[in-house]
Design brief:
single chain, mainly alpha, globular
Length: about 260
Amino acid sequence: AASHVGLGYALLGQHEFQDALESARQAARISPQDSSAWALLGDVHFALGHVVEAEFAYRRLDQMGITMQSLARMALVHQELGRHAEARVAFEEAIQAAELLEESPVDIAWCHTLLGDLDLEEGRLDAAHGQFVRAGKLDPGGHQAVMGLARVEIERGNLALAHQLLKGLAEHHPGPRTWIALGDVLDRMNASDEAQACFEKAAVPIRAEVAAGELGHLRDLAEAELRLGHLDAAWAAARRDLTEVRQDSGAYEVLERVQR
C-alpha cells in the first residue's frame, strides 16, 4: 500500500486527480487498516469536490486514532460545508494535538495557515493576521502564510504592503497564483501595464502545459485569461476544468465569474 500512497500523493501534487484516485482506492483495498491510505483517499476526493466521500474517508481515519492530520482534515470538510463553528473547534484541537505530539513545525504551521484562512473568510482580520504570522515563524520558507498575510493587507486596504509581500513571494515562489495575486494588487494600484505582464507570466507556462495535454492548472489559466481580457479562452479553460478535471465548488465559482 505504501507505494500506492506515495504514487497517489505525487499524482495529486501534479493535479492528476483521476489517476491519484485510482491509486488511493488500490491502497485502501490492499491495506484497509492503513491510515495513510484513507488520508489519501479523502484528500483526493476533497480535491475533486467529492465532499461527502472525503468526509467518509476522514471519519474512517478518525476511527484509527485522532491525530492532528485527521482533525485538520475534518475541519476542512466542516468549513467547505459551511459548518464554521465545528471547523474552528477542529482546527484548534488539531493545533493542540500537534503541539502535544510534538509534530514538525511545518505541520503545525499548516494548521495555523488553515485556521487563518477560516478567520479571513469570516472577516476576522486581526485573528487571521496572527495565525499567518505564527505559521511564518514556524515555517519561514512556507509561501502560503505569506500569501495569507498579503490577503489580509488587501482586505485592510494596505495595497503597498500587500504588493511588497507578493513581490517578494514571486521572487521565490513564482507560480501562477502568485503572479495572478500580484497582478490583481498592481491593477488596484492603477499599474495596469505591470498587472497585465503578471497575468501573462501566469498564463504562458499553463498554455504550454495544456497544449501538451496537462490539464491540472486549467483553473489558474481561466483566471489569468479572464484578467487579460481573453474571454473566449477563459471560458474554454473554465469549462474544461469543470468537465475534465474536477467538480468542486471552486470550478463553478470560476465558471460563474467568466460568464459575467
